[in-house]
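Q: What structure does this chain adopt?
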Amino acid sequence: MELNFITKKRTRTGTNDLDISIKVLTARNKGNYVQFAFRNNCAKAISDTGFVVVAIEGTRLYFKSETKELGFKLTKSTKATNQFTRIKDDNLAKWVKDRQGEYPLLFDKDHHLFFIETKEAKKWN
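A:
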């Protein structure tokens, strides 16, 4: 099975034991974004470039390191071990809507990728 990674589109103009939180944010006149908060230095494990892409497979959300041209930038927070990124993708926002929350980072030995296992949600397609 091939994973379909979501990449950025080119245009011209009490959670210490949980590694990743995901939530949908709504920006006025700009639509929905998915915000990822990577804690406990897990962003360093996922990406050595400082940019990531994500892929959805069932209840799993996979993360992969990517180039600056295709990936979403990981931004450091005021806490040295935390990093954030926001992704504007309508399908991803629909998928995350019923799965917002805190998750541990896991590793898939078959795909050789890090992922989070989310709860089952309503059909999103």
